[in-house]
Fold this protein.
Amino acid sequence: MTELYRDLPTEARLALEKMGARTVPEGADTAVWLASSAAVEGVSGKFFEQRTEIPCEFRNEEAEERLWGICESLAG
């Protein structure tokens, strides 16, 4: 775990660690793999987690519109 959460109360940090906090190298693994692996050369517009492609929930118009509405309300 990085020092990103260093100012959190101990209980909150412990809860995050129990949820599966990863080390810096573990967290960077997929990004490094995507940037350097021939296995995904030419792949674009996909989402990956732990070297596995995952579906994007915002690949449909209804979900995109909901997200846009949230962004607009937050931006004012």
